[in-house]
Write a structure and sequence with these properties.
CATH class: Mainly Alpha
Number of strands: 2
Oligomer: single chain
Shape: globular
Number of helices: 4
Strand content: 15-25%
Distance between the termini: 19 Å
Strand order of the largest sheet: 1-2
């Protein structure tokens, strides 16, 4: 859905909180030159869960796609990622807070 600074997903926040509460991911927050950011990593339990999912060939294909997206965008500074998202997907940018 459109949001102040770009796409926003309530479902994503729900899913992240669920995965964290189940001990499958951990969250690291930081403040840097581009602002506040969150980094998520699988815990040992989360890694075991993902490995067990590879028994399903379809899920392995999805994992490959996710890995490629991560490879492409993971090192991009947050400010650059936000700018890229605004340019590529302007329909998801809130109308009141961002001017190109």
């Amino acid at each position: 859905m459109p949001y102040h600074y770009g796409p926003f997903s309530r479902q994503l926040y729900f899913d992240v909180n669920l995965l964290r509460s189940q001990g499958l991911i951990e969250e690291k927050t930081s403040l840097d030159g581009s602002g506040f950011s969150r980094e998520y990593r699988l815990t040992a339990r989360g890694i075991d869960q993902v490995k067990s999912m590879f028994q399903d060939a379809q899920l392995e294909k999805i994992y490959d796609i996710v890995r490629e997206v991560k490879r492409k965008y993971n090192e991009m500074p947050l400010a650059n990622l936000v700018e890229f998202t605004h340019k590529e997907f302007p329909e998801y940018v809130g109308k009141h807070t961002y001017n190109h």
